[in-house]
Design a protein that fits this description.
- It is elongated, with a radius of gyration of 23 Å.
- Residues 190-196 have low confidence and may be disordered.
- With 219 residues, it is mainly α.
- It contains 8 helices and no strands.
Amino acid sequence: MAPAFLAAAIYLTLMHIVNTLGPQYSPITPKFYPWIFISCDFLSLVLQAAGGATAATANGNKTLSTDGGYIMLSGIVWQVFTLMVFGGLCVEYFRRVYANRYNLTASATAVFNSTKFRLFVAAITVAFTTIFVRCVFRIAELADGWASPIMRNEVEFIVFDGVMCLIAVLVLTIFCQGRYFPQMQEHNSIERLDLVRYTSDVSGSDLEAATEKQSVRVK
């Protein structure tokens, strides 16, 4: 379950990277990155939870236990497929940005060429890779059922599950966006400011409408 939340942070981060470097180079509209991929990961979690619950309540029924394992496996396969599609979109986006690096705006060029931003992207890449490796390992682990030799190997489980998640958490924490990609915070501030302005405008309009209605009643 943990990789899904780590992946969600990466999905959201890509949206802000695209908005900073140039949304015109993105294969899809930036705001759809978190919506699409977080929704896909949610479906993966539902399948894994359903499979785990089915297996846990089998009560010695081997058929039901096996079915639960396959349901859980389908959720992990779907998660890996989602990560592959996301990774492909990332590669395509940065390929387009690099091909148009001399056409970027001054602010986008400054960010693209900065050491901090490149370290941040490298950290995101490492986190994404470790999450992907962990999920692929889970497929191999469940492919042969609950008695799989891989599932019974504690060292492999620690390395390819726990350590992979630990690396992802460490790089995302050390190379945090506040220090290495402050533009993400700026986008959030702008979005909050726009929301406040919109709310104020709506409230002002409602107040004016209410005042006019009251004036009509008085007359």
